[in-house]
Each structure stands twice: as C-alpha cells, then as structure tokens.
Amino acid sequence: MNPQQQPPLPPPATSGSGSGSGSGSSRYENQKRRDWNTFGQYLRNHRPPLSLSRCSGAHVLEFLRYLDQFGKTKVHTNLCPFFGHPNPPGPCPCPLRQAWGSLDALIGRLRAAFEEHGGKPEANPFGARAVRLYLREVRDSQSKARGF
C-alpha cells in the first residue's frame, strides 16, 4: 500500500505539546490517547482496513514512515554538502523527517496504550524487533547526518 494514498491524519502529539498546566501524568495520558486515536484512524484508513488484531510490526513501520511527512527535523542525505554538519550555514533540499526522539516517545506511548486496550504484551506490534531496529537506524542516521 502506498502511504501517500491515505487521507491526511493529524500529526501525533509531541512531548512538548500541551498548555503546561496540570500534572505531567495527565499530559502524558492525553498524548497517549491522541496517539492511540491517530493510530486507530490510520488502521481504519488503511486499504484494506486493518483490525488491531491483524496489525504487525510491518504496519507500525508503515505508520512511522507515513508520519515523516509531518516531520520538522531536517535530515541531510549523504550527497548533501551539509551532511555531518550540526549547524548548516544555509538551506538545502534535504527532506524533513520525524525526529528520532519524537518517534521513540510515540512508540512508547502506543506500546503502553496497546496493552491498556487489552493487547497481550507478547503480541504487541509496537514492541516488535523490526520496530526496535527501525528506531535504532533512525537514531543512528539522524546522528550521522548532523555530525554527532
């Protein structure tokens, strides 16, 4: 399935969102609920629609790649003259992506929400090995792209 064929979804909540009032726990719970609802909408919009019980780590990866279109982090490609520079001196055409930290936090919230909604820990697609490897690859590639 081509993620570009999906209707747009609201971007996931980021760790910095919220009014700052209230307890950190309620802000986390609100983010987790919004993220869970966004993922549920993604499953419903999937062609063909996908039930949570049939969702796999591969579907989670598809979702994470889909979210890149909402990203705000510039990730330089190997061919970019600014590749490896933490503070590039000018603009470039490299793509915007979701930041590794945002994806890592999102997966943590979705992993918890899956189990809170009755999913068995051993069947949790957000904890799949492929998802962990993908997050590690994103972290490493973003780090290299910025010269860290």
TrEMBL record:
Broad class of where this protein is predominantly found? nucleus
Extract one GO molecular function annotation from the record: DNA binding
What GO biological process term is on the record, naming one? mRNA transcription
Query: Can you list the GO cellular component terms from the UniProt entry?
Result: nucleus
Question: What highest taxon heads this organism's lineage?
Answer: Eukaryota
The residues covered by the ALOG domain are: 27-148
InterPro entries, from UniProt?
Answer: ALOG, ALOG_dom
Q: Which family does it belong to?
A: Belongs to the plant homeotic and developmental regulators ALOG protein family.
Q: What is this protein called?
A: ALOG domain-containing protein
Source organism of this protein record:
Cannabis sativa (Hemp)
